[in-house]
Task: structure prediction
Amino acid sequence: MLHRTKRSVTRGISKPSNDRREILQADFWYPVSHCSDAQSLFQRKRTESELLGSFVRMISTKEAKRSGRKVGIDILGDVSWGTHSCLFYKTKEDLFDILVPYFKAGLESNEFCMWVTSEPLNKEKVKDALREAIPDFDRYAQAGQVEIISYDQWYLKDGVFNLQRVIDAWVGKIDQAITAGFDGIRVTGNAGWLEAKDWKRFADYERQVDSAIDKHQMLAICSYPLNKCGASEIIDVISTHGSALIRREGKWELIESSERKKALEELQASESKYRTLLENLPQKIFLKDKDSVYVSCNDNYARDLKIKADEVAGKTDYDFFTKELAEKYRADDRKIIESRETEDINERYVQQGREVFVHTVKTPIRDKHGNVTGILGIFWDITERRQAQKKLLDYQKRLRDLTLQMALTEERERRRIAVELHEQVTQNLILFKIQIGSLREKNPPAELTKPVDEIYEHLDQIIQNMRSLTFDLGSPTLYELGLEAAVREWLNEEFQQKHGIKTEFENDAHPKILDKEIAVLLYQAVRELLVNVVKHAQAQHVRVSICTDKGNIRISVADDGAGFDPSVGDFGLSQKGGFGLFSIRERLSYFGGSVEIKSETGRGTRITLATPMSKPKRLFKMGQIWA
Result:
């Protein structure tokens, strides 16, 4: 079967302009005999999960098509730099029929054109044919835009074909042409001179040309005489060229190898699949050149701009956004181009009078030389997410407020009960004890002496228990003498005496005028930390220090116990009935405070609480916890 195809490989992305593209094309015509396995040409190292790469490839392909080269051959149409074709011919008329219009189009497209001749043509016959078809041929020749050379001068040196020398010579011609101001080069070489001994080396040469041509601004057609090509040679030649031209029944047809056709179809199917995927992604995707001019975008982004995707090319942010936003976006673009690094940016803009928040990933696009040629951007509309996050933060704040209110209410109730127990129950018990003591001093009857003594002792124990209960409910010292006195008292009476752990208290002696809520919170936190020292640390010595630092109060609780790994969990501080470190952190943070932990297994622990000495103004409406 004969069919038409076109190979296009893009090596970079640049803005839509007259600038030269990093794209290559070549068409060569050869007798199909000296080429083999070409599958490697289609191993484009394309990883299907790399959507960004797929998008860049898709955009690149569009750009390559926009910059196609006119071939002058109807069946080939426009092609891209790097196109490498072959031509099978029977007569010199076949050669002229294809190659003369091919060269005419090249000269008119500002390309350097080079024809390597072999029988049945020579330099004079080629010149005559070109001069007849191209009225200005002599002008092109005088300008150095065309060169016609014999095969023995180009392919052979001292009668020997040297593969690397010929390839290096082509590269040199390309460099000379670009330096001279031509867009690229267009060449044809006739392989009619080949002898059987040269076929293998020439086939290797064709394979190397085919694998490297897409790196250069070059078009090539290699011509092969059919009378020197058997079936196996024809198959080999087609395998090392993107396409082949052959005349059948007076009509030119385009053919290609089945392997190449299959690879192209798979590539196109994959391209179509990812283009469909990208167009249906919720993300907005765009491509700009290095001057922040839009090159392409997907439909999602185009809908936001109220245009069609194919209308974005050539426009800038000033066409769609306010001057302030456009300048911001262009500044972001410049930063990425200059830094050459990908950036994650949260941005806002106004769409149809509505404030919209987006999360944007912008990455520089580089050509094969590593030069930044543009910017690829993908962004998500995160407006709803931000609104949800705001609602969640508001809810968390209200929950924190409620939790603190409940804690303060609980503390206020504990304080009230402690006061009532002290002023009502404990005082009455003390009065009753005094009365029993008076009765003992009056020498009651012998049968009453023992019961009275027992009642007196029981009352004394009950009073001590009531004082301890009152102290646990709410330290009177905390409210009457302050935080430092309360911590010192609890450290000595409740901690050292009950648990036998040596304690040390340090105070910088500076006055500490604390809001009562903060004093209560710090007192509860210190008690909780000390209780956990008893439960978990196996410490012999504990030191508590209190000092002031630029309007803040800092309390450090240090022990010489077992220590722990601060990176694991809640450090055993979330015991039933206790604050837990998380709770301490949360409550301190509400007042603008913090918790610092330093611990190492086997070397003890130091936990430092820090908070302002007065609560923030936003909390002044909180209920008071003292009567």
About this structure: The chain is about 45% helix and 20% strand. The first strand starts at residue 69 and ends at 70. The chain has a mean pLDDT of 78.
